[in-house]
Amino acid sequence: MQALVKFIAIALLATFGLTGCSFHLFGPPKDTFYETVLDRFPDNRAALFGQGQVLLRNGQYQEALPYLKRLTRLEPDNQQVWLTLGRAYLEARDGLRAERAFRRAISIRPTMDGELGLGNALMLQGDLSAARSVADRIAVTYGESAYLWRLRGDIAFMADDPAEAARAYNESLALDPAQPSVQERLADLSDLVQVSQH
Predict the structure, then answer these.
(1) How many CB atoms lie within 10 A of CB 175?
(2) Radius of gyration for the chain, computed over Cα atoms and rounded to the nearest angstrom
(3) Any idea which fold 11-76 has?
(4) Rounded alpha-carbon distances, angstroms, from residue 80 to 35, 77, 92, 171
(5) Concatenated DSSP letters for 83-149?
(6) 124-160 b/e with 16+ CB inside 10 Å = b?
(7) How far apart, in whole angstroms, are the C-alpha atoms of residue 160 and residue 194?
(8) Are 181 and 173 in contact (CB under 8 A)?
């Protein structure tokens, strides 16, 4: 029976392997086209980035890291690669490495995405003062945005200031109402804020 299952899996992979289908019976979901390219050309930059992106989209943050780290060695001055690596480290809850990746991205070319990532990395490490400084720098350099207010809300949330967190999340939603995670946090906070004000 086990041999039959293995045969069927191999047949499916052979059938779909070069089409980019992400169906796998064994291991994390990967794009088989990218894997095929990387088997033949391990330093193919487009396949490394593509495979990293597929794994990130599928929530396979740790699995994405080797592809993205290898790509940073091949593309050390590519800001987008460093931003993506920072995002993967953030999702993997590695604030220190995320901070390093975002600082590298910012050193190549300062952007709001890099600064927001840096603020989140600092917050993840518990350095709320430094995260607030980054948020202030974003406001001065790039102006107010839904993303900035979300960062401010997250910082206040981590600082155990539910009223300020709720205020910042409301500001974020006023600028961009299509943020389900912010809506959920705000709903969770609303009862607490109302109770603490009585």
Answers:
(1) 14
(2) 21
(3) 1.25.40
(4) 21, 9, 18, 28
(5) HHHHHHHHHTT-HHHHHHHHHHHHHHS--HHHHHHHHHHHHHTT-HHHHHHHHHHHHHHH---HHHH
(6) beebeebbbebbeebeeebeebbbbbbbbbbbbbeee
(7) 15
(8) no
Please identify which residue in the block is written with the tokens 């102006």.
143
Could you tell me which of 100, 102, 38 has the C-alpha nearest to residue 74? 38
pLDDT tens sequence for the chain (198 residues): 554 444 344 433 333 333 344 444 444 556 789 999 999 999 999 999 999 999 999 999 999 999 999 999 999 999 999 999 999 999 999 999 999 999 999 999 999 999 999 999 999 999 999 999 999 999 999 999 999 999 999 999 999 999 999 999 999 999 999 999 999 999 988 877 764 543
Q: How far apart are CA 32 and CA 28, in angstroms?
A: 11
Domain ranges, ordered by start, for the chain: 11-76, 146-198
